[in-house]
Amino acid sequence: MTLKSDEFFLKAEQLIAAGRFIDSKGWVPATSGNFSARLADGNIAITVSGRHKGRLQADDIMLIDPQGRSLDGKKPSAETLLHTSIYQRYPDVQAVLHPHSVNATLTARLFQDEIVLEDYELLKALPGIDTHESRIVVPIFANDQDIARLAAKVEGYLDTHGDIHGYIIAGHGFYTWGASVDDALRHLEALEFLFDIEIRLHGVKRL
Question: Are 154 and 138 within 8 A, CB to CB?
Fold first, then answer.
């Protein structure tokens, strides 16, 4: 009996399509980034480690349990814990997307601990926001190869500051999520646009 249901393959197709779109924007160079979607039974479809996100096939999406353990013998991303911790904190989240974009990387160079986005119409693309007269904070965390430690820092921030729409890892990329793959993709695209605006507004650091 296969562990992979029709729902798994449907979510896999959604992640593959998202990967092609994100790659077309140049937001996942080389084999960077990782994407996932939660299934109704709590297990998670997630990209296999080291696969190019613009060329994903069904075999490049694997199945893990809610704790991040492989259920099909394939190797998930080293950053799987950052996905599973989001699912554990937010029961309504059904998809997590993690690009390695130029804008997220530059944003972390320009802003030390957080970037504030306010008074932008496009903020309305994010859940719970219905006016441009809004202000959100996207925290920036130092990169860390110890993913458990990094996940704990994110958890600690959320415990202290409350819910957020995404976070940046310095020199790395950013994470965002949503109630579906499409929702997460909309949030990703909106945050990318807003990061770009802030970079243009503040300029890049000169040597």
Answer: no
Residue 121, phi then psi, degrees to nearest 5: -60, -35
Q: What share of residues in the chain are helix, strand, coil (percent, to 5)?
A: 40, 20, 40
Confidence of residue 206 (pLDDT cuts 50, 70, 90): low
**Entry pTM:** 0.94
The overall longest dimension of the chain from CA atoms, in Å, is 59
User: What sign for the dihedral angle of Cα 40, 67, 166, 12?
Assistant: negative
In contact, 59 and 47? CB cutoff 8 Å? no
Task: Give the whole-angstrom CA distance, residue 31 versus residue 11.
Answer: 20
* Torsional sign, CA 31, 109, 78, 183: negative
Q: φ, ψ for residue 202 (rounded to 5)? A: -95, -15
